[in-house]
Each structure stands twice: as structure tokens, then as C-alpha cells.
Amino acid sequence: MMTVPGVISPAPYPERLPGRVGALPAGAHVFAADPQHHDFHGPRCVKDLVLERTTARKP
Fold this sequence. Notes:
about 20% helix; single chain; globular; about 60 residues; 2 helices; mainly alpha
């Protein structure tokens, strides 16, 4: 996992993820466990996500 000095490190997140598998929706663990999501220089880093759509519902 590549990190950027002076930026919060994502290292603890993937280390703690295995203990939370049961709390995640189906498919979410595979998505969250992808090492490229936590690599600031990777092509699938979460910092580069773009919101495509939202849905608002009345409570």
C-alpha cells in the first residue's frame, strides 16, 4: 500500500476489515478489501470516486 507523507494513512482500515465482514452488505467486503482502493497512486483509489447519482427518499 502506497501512502503519501503528511496524509492520513489508510493502513489501519484494511487491517481491521476482516473482523467486520459480517457487518457489511453482500459484495461490500470484496469492494472494500480491494488493495487499490487504499493506494493513493492506484487507479481505483477512493479519493478519486465520482458521484454519479443520488436518490432521496422521504422518511
